[in-house]
Amino acid sequence: MAIANESQQEEHNMQEHHGAGRYVVIWVVLLVLTLVTVFTGRMHLPDFGLLLALVIASVKGTLVALYFMHLSEHRGANRLVFGVSIAFVVLLIGFTLMDFGTRFRLANPPGSQYSDLQAVDIGANKAEGRQGGHLDEKQKQEKHE
Amino acid sequence: MSSAHVTPGSVPGPKLAAHFASLEVQKHAARLGMWLFLATEILLFAGLFACYAAYRFLFPEAWAACSRELDLTMGTVNTVVLITSSFTAAMAVHYAKEGKNKMVGHMFVLTLLMAVAFLVIKYFEYKHKFHIGTLPGRYYFYEGIQLPGAPLFFTVYFASTALHGLHVLIGMTVLMFSTVRAYRVGDFSANNYTMVELGSMYWHLVDLVWIFLFPMLYLV
Amino acid sequence: MTPSSSIAAPGAVPGHEATDDHGHHPSYLTDGTTVKSWLLTVDHKRIGIMYMAWVLLFFLVGGIFALLIRIELLTPGPTIMDAMTYNRVFTLHGIVMIFLFMIPAIPSIFGNFLLPLMLGAKDVAFPRLNLLSLYVYLAGAGFALWGMLNGGLDTGWTFYTPYSAHTTTTVAPVLFGAFIIGFSSILTGMNFIVTTHTMRAPGITWFKMPLMVWALYATSCIQVLATPVIGLLLLLVTAENLFSLGMFDVARGGDPVLFQHLFWFYSHPAVYIMVLPAFGVMSEIVATFSRKNIFGYRAVAYSSVGIAFVGFFAWGHHMFVSGQSTFNAGVFGVLSMLVGVFTAIKVFNWVGTVYKGAVEFSTPFAYFCGFLFFTVFGGMTGIAVATVSLDVPWHDTYFVVAHFHFIMVGATIMAFLAALHYWFPKMFGKTYHEGWGLVSAALIILGFNATFIPQFLLGNAGMPRRYYEYPERFQALNVASTAGASLLAFGFIIIAVYLTYALIYGERADNPWNSKGYEWLTASPPPTHNFIGPQPTYPEEPHFYVDPNTGKGEVSDV
Lengths: 145, 220, 558
Known about the structure:
The complex is a heterotrimer.
Chain A: H1 2-14, H2 21-42, H3 49-68, H4 77-102, H5 137-144
Chain B: E1 3-6, E2 15-17, H1 23-58, H2 60-69, H3 72-98, H4 101-132, H5 150-184, H6 194-218
Antiparallel strand pairs in B: 1-2
Helix pairs in contact in B: 1-5, 1-6, 3-4, 3-6, 4-5, 5-6
Chain C: H1 4-7, H2 35-39, H3 44-72, H4 83-119, H5 127-149, H6 163-166, H7 171-198, H8 211-243, H9 256-290, H10 297-310, H11 326-354, H12 363-385, H13 388-394, H14 398-422, H15 424-428, E1 430-431, H16 434-461, H17 475-505, E2 507-508
Antiparallel strand pairs in C: 1-2
Helix pairs in contact in C: 3-4, 3-5, 3-17, 4-7, 4-8, 4-9, 4-14, 5-7, 7-8, 8-9, 8-10, 9-10, 9-11, 9-12, 9-14, 10-11, 11-12, 12-14, 12-16, 14-16, 16-17
């Protein structure tokens, strides 16, 4: 019967009970990974630093989801929901970045492309009352005068 | 919804709402509902992650410089605190399944204490930023980093940490209900731990988001 | 077919509060008549009816704004309002119609009412959250209306930055209102998904669910996955408007096109939140009034999920001229065509169902015919505007306006009215006057075409949208469009009159269509917990009709 199947399966899956040791192990692994990512982060690896950090974060996140949130014991809909939501996060970020990565250069604000980036003085100076990297209307007028 | 009847037997069970066919169905529905809710939370943060990714792509230098301006020690301590609080929340579910209500309460109290610690550390981080002027958008007045995109980094920083902080507060409220119930009523058991489980799941989500925010903000 | 009375067996369950001594079961309408029993109900049927009252009210508001727009455009120059007022009016028309009418229309009214009935359940999985979603919706609507009354806003319903971040009109409360309404949408979506997974009666497997349920399920998936993104975005823009945090501010390196990405990540799939339930309604109606099992059940079911899925891969086609990269525009243009494939699968199956069916040409079927025309015509123009090179000249002209009114509004309104007529006896146990039904259906379909076909021509001739003045050479078509709009309004007035009359004086009816949908297995109007006695069993498929040609029961193909 339809009702019974899905919910009984769920009940059955959730009846597994493990010792507390499992949680301790995951906790220790998470702490170790945190130290690893801090260590590699401080090396300021030029190209793949962020990528490496995100890979480590994904591993940590997977551990939390699988064991702390018991996703490893779930079947069916619960897993699907989590998987689909992650997939759509990737979709949103992927298509957005694809746009930014393939734009013709003039579409981006000046100085915003990696290749033409240099230390531009954006002009923040509290003593002169300039904040946020651009002049307020009032200051603009003063400058013109 | 009026409750129709309570499961027979000596073990105290949860109440069955009249519209569910059985307790199994009710528990399954609650759990699936929670997963769906967590999916909406994940996509809520996805919007901020997309902003982060786009601007990191446009302003990598400013991103690196601003990221180094953050206090890595405080960030690391906060990560450790939050991971540990997630661990205690998981242990609370473990004890709830075994019916050890006192321990459930203790574990959640530990979790709540660490949540408070997280917020206190965050407060000091924020305070420092307000002091030196690494603030979002037009409030930015820090002279140490004069790169285009620097105010934007702090817009993303404040938006994401503030939203995450809000979730910490919501999570604390949710856990408080379970804590009080564990101490006062003490009816969690292998048969009846949905409330503990769902509250704990929410807390793990808060942890999960931070696991990603931490390297993104502090370790570029 | 078993009549409903034998399924609603007299064996009353002990403890069933809706049973009196004589075995007479009050319907959900009469079970408690106090105001409190309505306002605090957790009964999905009453919540659906309350949604209906509010949604229809907002439809009236949005409709009045639409008429104001059409009256203003009657003459080339200023007619009844100035430019600023016009900007506010079309913005409010968009916001009210989209957020307050179209998104909740079919899922929240008919979905709430029918989903548990179609699954043989007593209620949705979370009845209290269901009630909460109604009040959250009203709270959001309150915020939005408050903002409108305090000056209104002139950004268009899309709230594009940088204008929305800088305009001095009341953007913040309306944005915040839309943010709150998002929660209502999410709650409904979660509720439906969990209900579909857990509350199906014994015998209803995934592929024995009515197609309306499949459509609602796919819709709910979109609501759950897409709404949070726009929720966050609306918060960011509110913050931008109030505190200028600079997230999308070009002067500080921000990128307004990023706003558009996040906005359309929700708002394009939102089109399917509006139109997928309409597809579901029509799948039910076409089977009932053709007296034939739906042709290609699995194809229709899968294509609902398919549309929900590929709907997420198409958002960039709203941004062809806004600075998106050419490469992305091409990719999104091609991916947008996929939606056409899945929609075409549905259209072919509906036509296949009607083919050689014993068609009963009643009001819902008349709306089905209108729906088919609008879906095909609107869908084909959609393929056209998804082509980058064609969209560049058409962008922001009345061609696009006419296109989305055809597919999104036309199809949804047809389905909404069809559903209203088809399930009116189910909801209230009464019938309306069939003649008036057909007359008003003809008026509305005619009026809708008369309103928007001139707009296709106007757009093709180059009239841009969102202007309150236009060159004199466009006047003839604009007058035609306004005339069509008044026909539409007239049609809606007739419907309002005869349905109100039917509500009070209508003839008693139980299942006037002899429909075999699962929702008709219980009494009309249904009792409080939907079924009296033991849960009915569902041995047959939901669209099981005897084949008119062979006289045999047709087995679902594919």
